[in-house]
Amino acid sequence: MRTLRLVTGHEAPAARLHLLGGFELRVHGATVEIKPAPQRLLAMLALAGTTIQRGFAAGQLWPDASAERAQANLRTTMWRLRHVPCELVHGTKTHIRLGAEVWVDVREGLSDSGDVLRGPRSGTALLADLLPDWYDDWLDTERERIRQLRLAALERDGEVMLEAGHPADGIQLGLRAVALEPLRESAQRLVIRCHLAEGNLIEAVRQYERYAASLRRDLSAEPSPRMAELLGTFRRRAPALPS
């Protein structure tokens, strides 16, 4: 029986699992090729971030199979991972979880996104898409969760840059968020505030007008009063500018 060893921040993890941009598993520095079913089991456990029931995992991974067949597939899949020289999956009779020695890039990105004082790193940590060549239904919610975290991280880092007196960097981070979700008002407000901090009123008005035009065209809506108030008296005097 293997002895579990917790990985501290000063030790290199035995296994590194990459899900952003595509699946890759590296163990002790070497790439390990595994079949699709074990790949999907590892990805599910990594994204769950906690212990899950065997029946739930089996039903998600083999939704078209009977409960008995799905459970048998899960046992076979776990057995196929035993040749890897570290514990990738830890299981009991009823539950399974990712091995304690496995580092996951998604978790690292989410950890960065919670520490905005590190500067504009968290947004870039999550820029790659989650398993872009997979089409499993159970990934839809995870992709949306990461998209929302990516947007929030970019905005938070942009706020840090603005408060630190670097509005140009804030603009770049805000525009990344705008590119991901053009109708997201909080990202648009960040870009406008950064333009105003630089003294570029015309750029701020242009950004506002582009956003307002998109809202009218796509949603038949207007920017919120909070958005309009950003430009103050200048916006009320200035004519509409072409997008």
From TrEMBL:
**Record Pfam families:** BTAD
- The Bacterial transcriptional activator domain is annotated at 104-235
Stored InterPro entries: AfsR-DnrI-RedD_regulator, BTAD, TPR-like_helical_dom_sf, WH-like_DNA-bd_sf
Name the UniProt record assigns to this protein: Bacterial transcriptional activator domain-containing protein
Species the sequence originates in = Paractinoplanes deccanensis
Lineage runs: Bacteria, Bacillati, Actinomycetota, Actinomycetes, Micromonosporales
